[in-house]
Amino acid sequence: MLGLSELASTPAKTRYHQPYFTPLEVAYLTEKQRGKFSETQEEKARQQAMSLIDVVGTQMGFPRKTIATAQTLYNRFHLFFPMKDFSFYDVTMACMYVSTKLHDTLKKPRDILMVSYAVRFPELAAKIKVVGGEVDMDHNVVEADRKRIIAIERLVLEMICFNFNTRLSFSFVIKLGKALGATKELIKLAWHLAVDSHRTLVPLMYPPHTIALACIYLAALLTSFETPVLPAPEGSLNQTSHELAALLGQNGQWEPMYQAHVEDLEDIVHILIDLLQNMSSSFPSSVTASPNTPSSPSPYSYQPFNPNNLPQSSIPFSPSTSAASILSSSTSLTRLKIALKEREHEPRERMPLSQTDPTAGLTPGSGDGEGGSGGVGAGLGKNEGTVRFLFGPPGSGTPGLS
């Protein structure tokens, strides 16, 4: 801890907010923060976190934008901080708390915790006798959890450089769907796919309008793959699923018009198909109640992350898409993935926003880089001199905070 005189003499440091990462950067950072855990364990933990955020947010009546932002914050958090160093529940609830501030859907940490207790321990929730009542939890446990959420909140805010601007793909799905002449049913399916995209790392790699186009493309593929081509109804101004899939599956005038690339759409579609396959085959649609009870000390004491010992709860693990028939056949998704692989374009080369070397300066906590600027996670959560938080990558000319 530095004194006032030392703080005054310490040169100011600059932290840049990087809105998007290249797939290579994301792969490097996730591997580093994953540590000794396998990709399967990491994915299992991520989907548990996404489900917990979804259920808690839904029960609290939060809009979808609040829930989706919390899910993205969680995924971004573990690009910067090792999974083993933080409690699974603390990070999810801290990200939910920050998201409520970003979208003006404010709730106190205690309110969020009480709903999460009801989700995690349904046997306690069953004992609530008053509608809208709270779970009976020990005051010391609640206060300890609240303090950890506040501590992690600071890390999350510094991680995003206090940039409270959020852009989600939901409104783009509706606007672009109408512009492309998609039917209401297809737009609805694309919207659900956009919701599910926040269960992945896609929002960290691509802007929302590109994700929206990819969801429309995938919705068209899912509703047209291995189905006969039918003419559009007479007098209809909408395009069929086959026509939309053919349009967005190849280069064309739509790319400069919507500032997107077919290669990016294909990358996103493959990630979402993998997610749907995992949901339909690898994970149960629901899990049993936790054998742990509030009388057991282990659920309430701080525990580092361990994907092999994730507490089971009543959290449902199911996609938000309403097309249940799509998930009933994992083999059809596999065939679709193979068909896309056979005709996909070469991956588009993407340069990082802040540097030419995708891995340079991306080691969290590794110290400062050139010019007094730290790595992606360097120095977060520490009181060491003056720090300027800029709302964009170097050279973007964006304002910031000091």
Could you walk me through the main structural features you see in this protein, from its secondary elements to its overall organization?
The protein folds into three domains: 1-18 and 363-402, no CATH class; 22-166 and 289-309, Cyclin-like (Cyclin A, domain 1), CATH 1.10.472.10; 170-282 and 322-343, Cyclin A, domain 1. It contains 16 helices and three strands. It has helices spanning 4-9, 23-34, 39-59, 64-80, 88-102, 109-120, 122-125, 139-159, 170-179, 184-197, 208-224, 241-248, 254-258, 262-282, 324-327, 330-343, and strands spanning 13-16, 387-390, 400-401. The longest helix is centred in the first third of the chain and has 21 residues, at 39-59. The radius of gyration is 22 Å and the shape is globular. The relative contact order is 0.17. Residues 341-351 have a biased composition (Basic and acidic residues).
How is this structure best summarized?
Belongs to the cyclin family. Pfam families: Cyclin_N. By secondary structure, the protein is mainly α.
